[in-house]
Amino acid sequence: MDVRRLQAFAKVYDLRSFSRAGEEMMLSQPTISAHVMALEEELDTQLFDRLGRTVLPTQAGNVLYRYCVTIFSQLDHAKADILALSKRVAGDLLIGGSTIPAQYIIPRLVAGFLEKYPEVRIELLGGDTSEIIGQVLDGGIHVGIVGAPALQTELISRSILEDELVLIGAPRFVAAAAGDQDWRARLTALPWVMRESGSGTRLALEQALIRSGLDMRDLRTVLQVHSSVAVLQCVEAGLGVSVVSRMAAATYLERGTVVQLPVDGLAMRREFYVVYHGRRYMFPAQRLFLAACGELS
User: Fold this and answer.
1) What pLDDT is recorded for position 297?
2) Plot region of 84 (φ>0 → left; ψ -120 to 50 → alpha; else → beta)
3) Closest Cα partner for 147 from 206, 217, 187?
């Protein structure tokens, strides 16, 4: 089978559209259609049901697509191994990062890596810790850098960097956070801006509260958001207090629109982990990127 035909078929399968497949592959729609029709003639079966503008794979199309995924993966492996023989490091590397790593750790890491290996093409995908770990498990990304270790036995997690979490609020919350009450009572009386479930920051806060005899449900959550930037903006606007990475809060703390609130009994440190699949083939680019992550620790 002609690989170009298989690539055209797989792109139509992914996008459910001949025209969009042509746009992505920079080929005309008639060329894409011709590739698919040639495959159908070669296999003597119909691969797609064409229902007006709707394109749906047939059972045969589903079978062929599963094999295409394997074929393309094996071709990538072959290319990487051949390039490795000539001591070239190239190919695609998909990196996932939870909020803090994606904004403050991975960009500098990638900059140094690409200076050494400029032929590698990197795509950075974001999400919370649980989402990134899930994508590593499913094979959607090669390497993840997140705020908690993976629990799945197939995945390997290595600590690469330590982070401090700080309790922050608008200046008007300083008095409330430093009152005469026990610090636990003060925490539960404050309004909280909280990260979503699955966030590494939220998990670190939960663990710190448990160690101190508190439960997340004891806190008065007024708002839940999905990024550290959103937390900082909401805290700066006076909506409540929250816990964030010191790296993320640094600029806000320097300009004084957000202040660190004293909490003597709540020590919050966490580690960032590089996560990868222990049972999947590892490209040279992935091995070298993992080595670069190890240099941070």
Assistant:
1) 57
2) alpha
3) 206
CB 241 within 8 A of CB 192: yes
C-alpha to C-alpha distance for 49 and 55, rounded to whole angstroms: 6
Rounded to two decimals, the pTM is 0.62
What topology does CATH give the domain 163-269?
Answer: D-Maltodextrin-Binding Protein; domain 2 (3.40.190)
The segments of the chain whose pLDDT lies below 50 read none
3-state DSSP assignment of residue 184: helix
> Which residue, among 221, 219, 251, has the nearest Cα to 233 in the 3D structure?
251
What pLDDT is attached to residue 180? 64
For CATH 3.40.190.10, the residue range(s) in the chain are: 91-161+272-294, 163-269
Domain with CATH 1.10.10.10 in the chain: 3-85
Enter the tokens of residue 32: 């894409």
Do 178 and 263 contact (CB within 8 A), yes or no? no
Paired tokens of 282: 């590892």
- pLDDT at res. 85: 54
Phi first, then psi: give them for residue 291, nearest 5 degrees: -65, -40
The DSSP letter of residue 103 is: I
φ/ψ of 266, rounded to 5, equals -120, 90
Domain spanning 91-161+272-294, CATH class: alpha beta
Q: 278 near 286, Cβ under 8 Å?
A: no
For the chain, the maximum distance between any two Cα atoms, rounded to a whole number of angstroms, is 82
pLDDT of residue 2: 84
Task: Identify the pLDDT of residue 78.
Answer: 81
Q: What is the dihedral sign for C-alpha 33, 35, 39, 44?
A: positive
As its CATH architecture, domain 3-85 has: Orthogonal Bundle (1.10)
Q: Is 161 within 8 Å of 169 (Cβ atoms)? A: no
